[in-house]
Protein 1
Amino acid sequence: MKKYLFIIAFFITSIINAQTFQIGLKAYTPILFGDIIETDIENPSAGFVNYASGGSLDFKIYTKTDWGFGFKVNYSEYIRNIDAYKEGISKSLGISDSNMIMQSLYTYRYIGFQIGVSHNFKIKGKFNIEPYIFLGAGVFTSPIEEITYFKNNKTYTRKKTITGFATIEYTPGINFQWNFIDEHLGLSLHIEYDGKILEEWSEETVTYSSDSFNKTYDTKDYSISAVNIGIGISYRFGKELNN
């Protein structure tokens, strides 16, 4: 209980001592690493992702000593390589692509909430550089999927529903900002490392035909990490930061 009271008192003190407030909107394209980009169908955690994009909305307060405290909401989408995924599924089912029809959203989604700390350094004129680190949690979801295929003179349907699971996210990075209108409206470029620790989970798959029904569970343990490079726009108000 004392720990939570200390955290609350800390943020109240920070707000009282705040000189500047900032709200910002960012968009970025990740350079992805980890199992999420693997295309080996025998790897149960292969994600077949070849493209991703994301954005965030953040709010920060700055103290007299240029320390910033705030929170942000993140949203990301991870798009499967459709051709590679169909090829992998055909291989695992032992059929040709012409004997299969696939309906899928092909998109993993993530939404999360973070709190963090930063320090603002004035470089020259209206240019600032700001290292930061944010920590938080969110939900990562797999796409819905339905496959109809023909094998051994029989038609089968295989379905997967959207599955979500808890995720811890940490994003250390650095922001370069140009406050081009009276130091209030700013444009920025940021580079950050985005690490996600995903809870292990089981994905349910149902396969059925006119005379059969089978339900299986595959354990998923995705590893997702990325280098996010993006741009943003922000608005600062309140007292100006000390030079």
Protein 2
Amino acid sequence: MPASFYKLLAPKSPFIKNLAFCFCCIFLLTLLTQAGNAELSDQEYLDREIEAAERGDAKAQTFLGARYLEGDGIPQDYAKAVQWFQKAAEQGHVDAQYGLGMSYYEGIGVPQDYAKAFQWLQKPAEQGIAGAQAIMGYLYSYGQGVPQDLFEAAKWLSKATDQGNAGAQYLLGLSHLAGKGVIRDKQKGCDLLRDSAEQGTREAIEAYNELCTK
């Protein structure tokens, strides 16, 4: 394999950070879009959700965490976002667990902590959230927050890939090309890179051109 291949596998690749940020943005947009109420003004709806969150309603707490994280209709405050995600996550709210896990993964509102990210992302991953599955695969791939296990990494990346997750397609494609955690299979690896590239993943386009067209 060319040296550039191993560079693509580097755990500090900016792509991974951008990938996680995109997951978090999609998560927030989904929460905020679904939360609308045509019968109330945005401020009235926000006030109602704050009251519900303070009463302990996990869904409202998750919504409020997303608002603070995004700074939507409320001053942006990452620490408060994490506090509300924490309250809802401890009640088992899967979206809050995902938001809290991504906060620890990115170091937003809390010190970056891959072990805690893994702890909170595990349940959303088990419940089928593709973004959480992809990050689980990444953490297992590089032993960040959990002992390195390439077979577990491939398992989680495969689950996310089955849902069309572009980041997982990229990482699993590289894994197949290298035979890391999976059987080495150039055709399958290149197919996955192409699938990711077709979704606009710049790194996948570069990897496909470098590794699959020569």
Protein 3
Amino acid sequence: MPSDNFAAVTTALTLAAVGVANTVMTPSEAFVTVQGQRAQAPAQLMKAAAPQASAREALGSKGLMAYGMAFGVAAAAARPRRTRKVARKAEGKIAVAEKSAAQMTVSYLKEIPRTIVEPALLKQLLDATPKEQWEDPPEDSYLYTLKMYAETYGPGKATKMGWFDFFYMNVNRPVADNFPVQQGFPTMEDQMAMGQRFRSISEGRIPLYIPGPSGFFNTGAWIQWRGAEPFAGDLVQSPVTDSYLGKGFIDNMAFYREGLKPWQRGLEIGVAHGYFLVGPFISLGPLRNTPEAATVGLLCGCAIVGLVSAGGLLFGSTIKPTQFDQKGEQPGAGFQSMINWHAVGGVGGAAFAHTLITVFGS
């Protein structure tokens, strides 16, 4: 129940109760019966009736009517204010509904789920685009991407979205802060900034952010993550695999380093694998707290090196890769030689780690 209605009802009940009390407390002649005869009440009863008479004078009909009239005037003055407040609320809801309806007049936006674009971003996209371009947006606008999505996915169309399409839409999705102008058309500077950003994103470049103590910071650099072919997922570039440091680190690995013979590659790779495979079994194995922990770690490391070497030999005998072959050798001979020396280096690396642990370990 609204507050003004509650006050009116409770006040009416209060006035009724006061009226009944006023009637009940009206003084009358008091009589007592003594042996069947009526006699006037003694003076004590008349004194008891005196407070009731004074209460009647305090709550007379004139005071009751004055109180009711005052409350009625106050209630009548307060009701239009609440009515105006309710009217303003209703007008606000109608305005929001009209704005949402205006946005939903675009045919391809009716079936766009919220997981693809947030309502706030959609509103800013529409505000930043002339209304006559809503149905046919320019290709450098994110509305064009949404239109392509609506024409590909939805009821009666494709129901399963490809991972690359989802990745592409999330990477290219702008943020709400990129639209500083909320009403009207953007200024020339805003249009140039947004156009440059959309052009960069459409070309497969994204800004480089670095993590910090309170979030991520924009370095001002851009990452060219997309390769020459836009729809080839294996050409996606990253700072780890395509940066100068990343390429330098990978090129210096024994498998890719220039000028090494197959046996040198296999020996170096095997020593590294055998040396690091012993530690997890010694520190985390079920016998880690026993004197036999180092021996068990050595045996487990050698077993893994043997399994990997057997798989490499099987791969070399069936696929026969030729990147390590010398002139005049059979296909896959260089790879087979690298795997054989990998087994030797793996056992040697594990034995060297076992020796260090038993001699210098606690």
Protein 4
Amino acid sequence: MLSLVSGNKSLSARLKLPFHAFPPRARRSNLPSEGADDQEPASKWCYDPAVVSSSILENIRRYRLAVEAKELRLPASQRQFGEPRASVQEICEDTRLEAFEKLLEHGSVSFYALVAIEFQPLLFEAVQFANGPPQDPIIPTGSALIDTINAPFRALSYVEDQYQALGVDKELMNSVESYLRRRDFAGFWWRQREQGRVVDSPTMFVLLWDEVTRRSREVAMAATLCSNKS
């Protein structure tokens, strides 16, 4: 029993991916013609894309190995009370990993571009011209730009499907609708930023991470409720 508990704690520690652990990108140095007061403050929305990408990819790899070794049940939302990683927090973390794995499987998606601040104007401009969210089934196009702005909907659809599969009769804001509202609002601020009017704007990755986390938490709470009833 002790070895099982120790192993579960070790697995939990390996799979945990706290958002605050991502280091921010280095600030841009002042040019010789600039004064110290002219430098932009470091953005709270800006994280090093290489570190974020490698961290998430490594956690997904470890998660897959644990599933293949039959240490964990997939999907996390179907775990029963007493199984490894069956707490609310653990189901939330693993459902989020599963969702991001779906995103990374989508065609020519560039996860780096979703995180990197320099690609945000291009991405938000592209969604401005898109005719709403992609229709189901979301098919890869082979275009890195189109697949990158469509891939988040693969992740959002996944967490929605997990929630619906639990059959909980509770009205909550659909994650796709919530993401679209926040994305449209962020797009406005990015256009203002490009005109030099605003400094701090959330990246598309931050919006998606927040939304997938929100819905994954609701999936986890519903899964735990269903498990306790059975």
